[in-house]
Amino acid sequence: MIRFQGLEKRFADVRVLTGISLEVSQGEIYGLIGPNGAGKTTTFRIAAGLLRPTAGTVQVAGVDVAAAPEQAKARLGFSTGSAGLYGRLTAREQLEYFGELHRMSAARLRQRIDEVAEALDLGRLLDRRCERLSTGEKQRVAIARAMLHDPPVLILDEPTSGLDVLAGRFLRDYVLRARDQGKAILFSSHYLAEAELLCDRVGFLHKGSLVREGRPLDLKTELEAATLEETFLKLIAGASSSPGPASP
Question: Which of 58-62, 109-113, 237-241 shows the lowest per-residue confidence on average (mean pLDDT)?
Fold first, then answer.
């Protein structure tokens, strides 16, 4: 459902991504894990058509993002850690606006607003201006916006950042239901216990390279680690002690 092949990205003479290849299948949650600056957000922004790769390709539900960006975006829901809401619009108006951009019918839009509001506990927030919402409330509205048009592929970059315990639980339950409905979900989180709980597979990104991927249990067994966090630390320590790619 989403496929990265040989993805590379440079900004001037700084190499940010080096040959990323991975695939997220229908009905799978794939966690991309790495420290700040590893290249996760750059990878996601390329998949969403917001950046062009230096080399390589990304396909979303069979559509090449570079060749047909509008078609790819129609098949994708993308949420980042920055809500980016219009402050003077209510949460409902925000969702209605983006639903119209996706050319959803009025009846379908009303239905989906009700569905995502229930799933993310937004009912009491829908008619409040976004500028008056807390950080966590804004984040929930942004996630609802990404999921509104019911796309087959979801990219969720730090989706639980800023959420309280209850809201985070609502989101995790929604993501699991979306997986069970057959969606392909690419997910990142600094909370490795959360990634271990949610993800069918994980990939560890370090200095722009995918150093290992697999099922959390398999990786923990291979690295003789008790938790995914310990696995991550062992892999990063090994990668840091190995010679990196030659500078351009």
Answer: 237-241
What string of DSSP letters covers 113-162? HHHHHHHTT-GGGTTSBGGGS-HHHHHHHHHHHHHTT--SEEEEESTTTT
Total Cβ atoms within 10 A of residue 152: 18
Question: Would you kindly state where each structural domain of the chain is located, as residue ranges?
Answer: 1-75+161-243, 85-150
Position 241 confidence tier, pLDDT thresholds 50, 70, 90:
low
11: buried, middle or exposed (CB in 10 Å: 19+, 13-18, 0-12)?
Answer: exposed
CATH superfamily for domain 1-75+161-243: P-loop containing nucleotide triphosphate hydrolases (3.40.50.300)
What's the rounded Cα separation, in Å, for the pair 89 and 224?
51
Q: 210-228, pLDDT tens digit by residue?
A: 999 999 999 999 999 999 9
